[in-house]
């Protein structure tokens, strides 16, 4: 028994050390940001090798870092491979791929409201991947080739809209829903299309050809839909396709060595393949050439990016070796590091939460 | 290499000077044959078939899990994969020998120890560094430690030229495992043995899913096992110094692969099918002039099929991967005693392994491996000094893509033991060994979208220890005690990284690990008291295995994953004539399932107990044995691998008859 108690003491000490070290980190180069409006920032950690996804929370006011607020509040883990999280209204929706669930939580407290299953009859996962919202409905891409339409009050799924193979991200632009069909599980025979869904009729009205194996899709809210695609080595390169959301015509398709976009006005920040951070100009449709990071900070494996339009800050996560805890870096608008924090494994999404 | 030559040049003079004393210093006299031999060149631990019941063991991994320094990765259940890591160097750095020939898995590098049924196994020995005899295959020198599995050899007389053993094991998990062994003496020089078994189990068990906060018991599924094995060995032995064996082994299994438990989600539908054939032969000759020759040859083929049929969203709705490995292996070793107390040897092994697979853009690699070893073994007064240097040369050829560059390395080992005159029964020992591990086919070529510039992994081991045996006329028959402290390190540890895009995993040389540890082994046997006899053994392992890859990492100087700092294994037994009962207990301190030593990734310490009872009797004048084994006696919830819950209490009954 003594042994056990000693262990607990040791764990407690370790925990305190972890917290303390983060705190210390925070004090280095501390800036007068962030603004009063933000309560804090969530980082969604995908985890690795099993059900160890986590939701890390950093409170701006108390400066307390909670390694996994989901399990701390709800007494259970998020599950296996949490792939996306978005806040809509007062709720946050966490899409957990291998578990086959969308966890609905209170965006401020992380308290579970509902765990919505997306599973086949035999309880295998339909593999929900990404979520978007429109007029009280949530739209969830499923690797089984559908976009599920879920009511955000009752959480009832009213419809499954068939799209292409292994759809990844989706986005609402100009009253339409754009879905990136990756076909990634048929590698190397991948898909290279975007399905356009009419949000009134909930049917696919158009299929647009983009680069091979598209995975990220986003909008600048100013007439453009941007699609990044992996390509298939060595036959095709990774690409960026720009779609005009009025005509759904492809404005341009170019080779592109960057990842998903994080917008602040007409600037879209992205992680380049060399792990530098570049800025894409959404007005001139030109990729950046210089590193946004100006203080020499480098990443081992830059993984996710987010921009906070309220403060001009840019947040970048580092997955390090993809099997250990990652890091969240905050940079001011001039590209100088403000602080860094420890996240969980494979920190794939950064979500700001207001007070 | 230079050191080795130097050693050879300096030593002969000293040998002459010390020969006389060496002759007087015979081995320590031990009254009972049952006393474990622990005064070996490098630390070694063994179990024989008589011990398997004591440990309630069903697989090779179960039988050796009490060994000091051993860390079994057990995924749970009856068909669950089991690999062994020795002194925190990882499963890839342990080579498994089957009747003195290395089993080879060029694809994965790790041998699944759950596939060996104990029915046909006579002895299992773990050698740190390498076996002590220098007349060995070169591969015996090539890994950080050697797990040697020896099968049963016929020991028959002309009066009773045959022996047939039939038995059946049944119990929890729906296990039904009949087995049969036939030993036959053909002539004065020839004999054979044939074995077969069939094992079927649904493998299901209840577990408590504490990890996800649910408190209800769930049932582990997709755990079924269907295995059959047949093997035959033909022996020719003119004498102990002139013998030959030929053996054939067939193994076939079809099993579910239960994956990590995910709360509320279905069990996975992954399956693994294996069919392996091995033909190997060995010839050993010791000439009158002390010249010794050892020839080993092996042909093997292993076929592996992996399928996943549930919730796979590709165009075929399933994943199927097929792999066929083929190997030809030839080894020759010669040894010669230059002086009565000084033996030198040279071993040369050649291995061709190829892998065919239907996975995307596969390289179809063929690997040519050459292992050449010079070794020396010298008794010098109270000292025994061994040294060897191994050259490994590896060259890959591929059908598509780019082959890895050929690699060559010299890795030495130095072993010294000392028996002080003042304290008979005591041995002091030390060794240094360096090894070289080339990337496996999986690491080098699996979904290698672009050629992977991997370097080999290097390990270094330093060991300092003592072994002491005391036989008494008091209440103890004997007590043996050994303690070895060691320092190991791994350079260029090869790490598999699942990247964001599932189709392009990555493998890099990333890790550096620094390991400090202590192995303590105590064995004792009590004097017979009114026909009661007691045995007691305890093994303790301390491992401080720290990641020293990069000071910038959050896990720098933290314990590597799945490695308990403290492990204690206890075994106690009581026998009364034909009856014996045994109790086994293993304690492992807390571990982390990821590189970061933070509470989120902590796996709690556990203690697991097993018990068994065995009764030997006559059934219509035929020797028969009945035994009952209970694993996890106190029905504890525990996990060794995160999200792979171990079974609660389970039972096995074994009935065996010998004709």
Give the topology, please.
The complex is a heterodimer of chains A (355) and B (659).
Chain A: H1 2-27, E1 38-45, E2 54-59, E3 65-66, H2 69-74, E4 82-88, E5 91-96, E6 101-106, E7 112-117, E8 128-134, E9 137-142, E10 146-151, E11 157-162, E12 167-173, E13 176-181, E14 193-198, E15 203-209, E16 214-219, E17 224-229, E18 239-244, E19 250-255, E20 262-264, E21 267-271, E22 277-281, E23 302-308, E24 313-318, E25 325-331, E26 337-345, E27 347-354
Antiparallel strand pairs in A: 1-2, 1-27, 2-3, 4-5, 5-6, 6-7, 8-9, 9-10, 10-11, 12-13, 13-14, 14-15, 16-17, 17-18, 18-19, 20-21, 21-22, 23-24, 24-25, 25-26
Chain B: H1 2-24, E1 44-48, H2 60-64, E2 70-74, E3 82-86, E4 94-98, E5 101-102, E6 121-128, E7 145-151, E8 162-171, E9 175-185, E10 190-201, E11 205-208, E12 217-220, E13 225-239, E14 242-256, E15 270-286, E16 292-308, E17 319-339, E18 342-357, E19 366-380, E20 383-397, E21 407-418, E22 426-437, H3 441-445, E23 457-471, E24 476-497, E25 506-526, E26 532-547, E27 566-576, E28 579-588, E29 591-592, E30 602-603, E31 606-619, E32 622-631, E33 639-641, E34 644-645, E35 650-658
Parallel strand pairs in B: 4-7
Antiparallel strand pairs in B: 1-6, 2-3, 4-5, 6-7, 8-9, 8-35, 9-10, 10-13, 11-12, 13-14, 14-15, 15-16, 16-17, 17-18, 18-19, 19-20, 20-21, 21-22, 22-23, 23-24, 24-25, 25-26, 26-27, 27-28, 28-31, 29-30, 31-32, 32-35, 33-34
């Amino acid at each position: 028994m003594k042994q056990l108690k000693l262990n607990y003491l040791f764990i407690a000490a370790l925990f305190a050390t972890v917290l303390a070290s983060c705190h210390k980190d925070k004090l280095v180069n501390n800036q007068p940001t962030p603004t009063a409006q933000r309560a804090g920032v969530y980082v969604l950690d995908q985890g690795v090798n099993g059900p160890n996804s986590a939701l890390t929370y950093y409170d701006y006011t108390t400066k307390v870092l909670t390694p996994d607020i989901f399990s701390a509040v709800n007494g259970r883990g998020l599950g296996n491979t949490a792939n996306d999280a978005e806040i809509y209204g007062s709720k946050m929706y966490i899409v957990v791929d291998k578990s086959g669930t969308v966890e609905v939580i209170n965006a401020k407290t992380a308290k579970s409201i509902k765990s919505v299953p997306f599973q086949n009859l035999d309880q295998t996962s339909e593999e929900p991947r990404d979520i978007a919202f429109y007029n009280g409905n949530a739209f969830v891409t499923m690797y089984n080739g559908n976009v599920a339409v879920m009511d955000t009050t009752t959480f009832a799924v009213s419809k499954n809209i068939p799209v292409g193979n292994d759809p990844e991200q989706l986005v609402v632009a100009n009253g339409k829903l754009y879905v990136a069909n990756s076909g990634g599980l048929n590698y190397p025979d991948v898909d290279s299309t975007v399905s356009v869904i009419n949000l009134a009729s909930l049917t696919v009205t158009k299929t647009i050809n983009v680069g091979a194996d598209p995975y990220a899709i986003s909008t600048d809210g100013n007439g453009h839909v941007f699609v990044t695609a992996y390509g298939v080595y060595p036959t095709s390169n990774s690409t960026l396709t720009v779609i005009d959301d009025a005509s759904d015509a492809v404005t341009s398709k170019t080779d592109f060595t960057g990842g998903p976009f994080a917008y602040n006005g007409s600037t879209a920040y992205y992680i380049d393949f060399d792990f530098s951070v570049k800025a894409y100009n959404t007005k001139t449709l030109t990729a950046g050439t210089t590193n946004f990071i100006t203080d020499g900070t480098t990443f081992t494996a830059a993984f996710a990016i987010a921009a906070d339009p309220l403060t001009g800050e840019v947040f970048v996560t580092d997955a390090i070796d993809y099997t250990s805890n990652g890091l969240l870096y905050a940079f001011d608008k001039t590209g100088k590091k403000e602080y860094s924090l420890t996240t969980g494994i494979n920190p794939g999404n950064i979500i700001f939460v207001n007070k | 290499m230079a050191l080795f030559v130097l050693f050879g040049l300096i030593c002969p003079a000293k040998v002459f000077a010390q020969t006389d004393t060496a002759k007087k210093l015979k081995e320590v006299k031990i009254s009972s044959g049952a006393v474990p031999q622990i005064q070996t060149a490098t630390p070694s631990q063994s179990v024989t078939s008589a011990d398997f019941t004591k440990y309630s063991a069903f697989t090779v991994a179960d039988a050796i899990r009490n060994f000091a320094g051993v860390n079994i990765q057990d995924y749970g259940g009856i068909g669950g994969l089991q690999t062994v890591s020795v002194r925190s160097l990882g499963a890839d750095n342990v080579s498994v020998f089957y009747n003195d020939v290395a089993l080879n898995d060029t694809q994965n590098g790790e041998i699944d120890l759950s596939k060996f049924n104990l029915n046909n196994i006579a002895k299992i020995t773990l050698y740190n560094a390498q076996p002590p005899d220098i007349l060995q295959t070169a591969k015996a020198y090539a890994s950080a430690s050697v797990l040697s599995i020896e099968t049963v050899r016929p020991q028959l007389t002309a009066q009773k030229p045959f022996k047939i053993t039939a038995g059946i094991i049944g119990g929890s998990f729906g296990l039904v495992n009949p087995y049969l062994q036939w030993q036959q003496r053909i002539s004065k020089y020839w004999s054979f043995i044939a074995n077969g078994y069939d094992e079927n189990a649904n493998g299901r068990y209840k577990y408590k899913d504490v990890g996800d906060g649910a408190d209800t018991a769930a049932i582990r599924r997709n755990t079924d096992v269907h295995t059959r094995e047949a093997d035959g060995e033909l022996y020719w032995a003119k004498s102990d110094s002139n013998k030959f064996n030929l053996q054939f082994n067939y193994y076939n299994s079809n099993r579910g692969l239960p994956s990590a438990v995910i709360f509320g989600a279905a069990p996975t539908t992954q399956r693994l099918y294996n069919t392996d054939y091995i033909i190997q032969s060995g010839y050993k000759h010791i000439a009158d002039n002390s010249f010794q020759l050892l020839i080993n040859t092996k042909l093997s083929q292993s076929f592996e099929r992996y399928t996943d049929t549930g919730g796979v969203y590709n165009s075929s709705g399933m994943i199927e991967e097929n792999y066929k490995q083929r190997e030809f292996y030839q080894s020759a070793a010669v040894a010669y005693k230059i002086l009565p107390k000084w033996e030198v040897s040279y071993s040369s092994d050649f291995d061709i392994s190829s892998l065919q697979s239907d996975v995307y853009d596969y390289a179809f690699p063929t690997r040519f491996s050459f292992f050449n070893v010079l070794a020396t073994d010298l008794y010098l007064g109270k000292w025994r000094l061994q040294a060897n240097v191994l050259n490994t040369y590896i060259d890959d050829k591929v059908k598509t893509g780019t082959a890895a560059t050929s690699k060559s390395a010299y890795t030495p080992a130095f072993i010294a033991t000392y028996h002080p005159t003042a304290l008979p029964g005591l041995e002091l020992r030390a060794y240094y060994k360096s090894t070289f591990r080339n990337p496996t086919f999986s690491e080098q070529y699996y979904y290698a979208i672009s050629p992977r510039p991997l370097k080999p992994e290097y390990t270094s081991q330093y060991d300092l220890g003592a072994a002491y045996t005391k036989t008494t006329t008091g209440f103890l028959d004997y007590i043996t005690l050994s303690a070895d402290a060691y320092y190991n390190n791994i350079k260029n540890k090869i790490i598999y990284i699942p990247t964001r895009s599932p189709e392009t995993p990555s493998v890099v040389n990333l890790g550096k690990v620094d390991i400090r540890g202590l192995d303590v082994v105590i064995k004792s046997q009590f004097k017979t008291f009114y026909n009661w006899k007691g045995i007691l053994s305890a093994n303790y392992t301390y491992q401080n295995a720290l990641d020293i890859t990069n000071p910038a990492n959050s896990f720098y100087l933290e314990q590597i994953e799945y490695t308990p700092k403290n492990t204690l294994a206890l075994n106690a037994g009581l026998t009364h004539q034909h009856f014996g009962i045994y109790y086994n207990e293993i304690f492992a301190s807390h571990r982390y399932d990821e590189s970061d030593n933070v509470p989120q990734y902590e796996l709690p310490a556990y203690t697991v107990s097993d018990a068994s009872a065995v009764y030997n009797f006559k059934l219509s004048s035929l020797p028969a044995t009945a035994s009952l084994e209970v694993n996890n006696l106190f029905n504890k919830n525990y996990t060794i691998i995160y999200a792979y819950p171990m079974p609660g209490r389970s039972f096995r009954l074994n009935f065996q008859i010998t004709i």
